[in-house]
Specification:
The complex is a heterodimer. Chain A is an alpha/beta fold. Chain A is about 25% helix and about 30% strand. In chain A, the strands form two sheets. A five-stranded mixed sheet of chain A has the order 1-2-5-4-3, covered by helices on one side. In chain A, a hairpin with a 4-residue loop joins strand 4 and strand 5. In chain A, helix 1 crosses helix 2. Chain A starts with 13 loop residues before the first helix and ends in a 10-residue tail after the last helix. In chain B, strand 1, helix 2 and strand 2 form a beta-alpha-beta unit. Chain B is an alpha/beta fold. Chain B contains six helices and five strands; from the N terminus they run αβαββαβαβαα. The chains are: A alpha/beta, B alpha/beta. Chains A and B meet through loops of A and loops of B.
Chain lengths: ~170, ~160
């Protein structure tokens, strides 16, 4: 129907560009890239600068720490931490991404910047095994105390799937 | 109950005793998820579980005869369920209500959901469905009453 178009990077809006300039002034080279996703700004920073980036955003009015999450990329041997902050006046949303190696997933905590990041980081730790260095009390939040492993990692073995394979080829694994 | 676990009662007495027990089931509701809504619906006027002699609101597990485990039992919840179960006096019965508590249901490969509450409690009646309709619970109650009617208290209590 239509020609194959090149993957065009969507343009940042004017307010997002201003925000990126602000971040670049504060972080320098630690700001790796800035893109948009569904009209929300997504910035990637180095793991060491995660609290700093969040502090800059907080000073810019992004005072609500919405959630932290993680992504496991086993093929590329890395884990990703996602922090989602919102400016409630807008509302505007920014996602801060940082990548850590799978062999040593350590990233500085953001609890000094947002006190509310505490439980989100505990949840991300228990599901993905990402260690938040400097977190005041990094222990299990939702799962049972005797849970073993980090269940959201893609190589985590689900025992029922071994005993009875998934009926069908969708999601086989 | 001092003698009931040693002496087999005469048939007429056993019949009368069991008949009385089966129409006075104080039911502890262990509602854990969406199945609890259906369980509540069966206790409302439309289905009216009390006409079967089920008394749905005991003040504590120590007054209850039946426990209905309705919903998704996560691993973290299991110690609480066992604790409440152990507080109930004998003779006691357990109904597993809904696919999740029967077998894990749609969460059969989850990392946090118990694959069937019958690994931890002696279940008398399984009610299938996701969630089961209130009528299914009424049917489960009738099955349990049948079981109680034909039961020997000596066998039950001497185990």
């Amino acid at each position: 129907m239509s020609e194959v178009t090149e993957d065009v990077q969507p343009q940042l809006s004017a307010s997002d560009s201003a925000l990126v300039d602000e971040l670049r002034a504060a972080l320098g080279d630690a700001l790796v890239e800035a893109t948009t996703n569904l009209s929300n700004l997504v910035v990637r920073v180095t793991p060491e600068q995660r609290p700093h980036a969040l502090a800059v955003l907080k000073a810019q009015g992004f005072t609500y720490y919405s959630f932290a999450g993680g992504v496991d990329w086993p093929d590329e041997e890395r884990l990703e931490v996602l922090d989602h902050v919102e400016d409630l006046r807008g509302p505007r949303q920014v996602t801060v991404r940082c990548e850590v190696p799978r062999s040593n997933p350590r990233v500085p905590t953001a609890t000094n910047v947002f006190r509310g990041a505490d439980w989100h980081e505990r949840e991300t730790w228990e599901l993905f095994g990402i260690v938040f260095v400097g977190h005041p009390k990094l222990r299990r939040l939702l799962l049972a105390d005797w849970q073993e492993g980090f269940p959201m990692r893609k190589d985590e073995v689900l025992r029922p799937r071994i005993e009875k394979p998934w009926p069908g080829d969708f999601f086989s694994g | 109950m001092a003698l009931l676990d040693q002496v087999e009662l005469p048939k007429p007495v056993r019949f009368t005793l069991n008949w009385g027990r089966k129409y006075s089931l104080w039911t502890l509701q262990f509602g854990l998820a969406c199945c609890a809504i259906e369980m509540a619906a069966s206790m409302m006027p439309r289905h009216d579980i009390m006409r079967f002699g089920v008394i749905p609101f005991p003040a504590s597990p120590r007054q209850a005869d039946v426990m209905i485990v309705a919903g998704t039992c996560v691993d973290k919840m299991i110690p609480s369920i066992i604790r409440v179960w152990e507080q109930m006096p004998e003779p006691k019965y357990a109904i597993s209500f809904g696919s999740c508590s029967n077998s894990g249901g749609p969460y059969w490969d989850s990392y946090s959901v118990a694959k069937g509450i019958d690994q931890y409690l002696p279940i008398d009646v399984y009610v299938p469905g996701c969630p089961p309709r209130p009528e299914a619970l009424l049917d489960g109650i009738m099955k349990l009453q049948e079981k109680i009617q034909h039961e020997s208290l000596k066998e039950r209590l001497s185990v």
